[in-house]
Design brief:
2 domains, GvpG, mainly alpha, 89% helix, 73 residues, Gas vesicle protein GvpG
């Protein structure tokens, strides 16, 4: 009976494994300090090119700096 269960649940287990790997990669990318610094530089460039307003710039900058601060603690 266990062999039948293993065969039956193999596709589901594969999907779960893939989802976990994707989650691991996305968490690593989000926690990467260099990526956050890159986003800060991109944000500043967008502000200087008038693609975003001052309020949006300061709001997003605050979020990114808080995230960086949290990661360094």
């Amino acid at each position: 009976m266990l062999l039948v269960d293993d065969i039956f649940f193999a596709p589901i287990n594969s999907i779960i494994w893939i989802a976990k790997k994707i989650d691991d990669i996305s968490q690593k990318e989000l926690s990467d300090k260099d990526k956050v610094k890159e986003k800060l530089m991109e944000l500043q460039l967008r502000y200087e090119l008038d693609e975003i307003g001052e309020e949006e710039y300061y709001e997003k900058e605050k979020e990114l700096l808080e995230y960086l601060k949290k990661e360094t603690e």
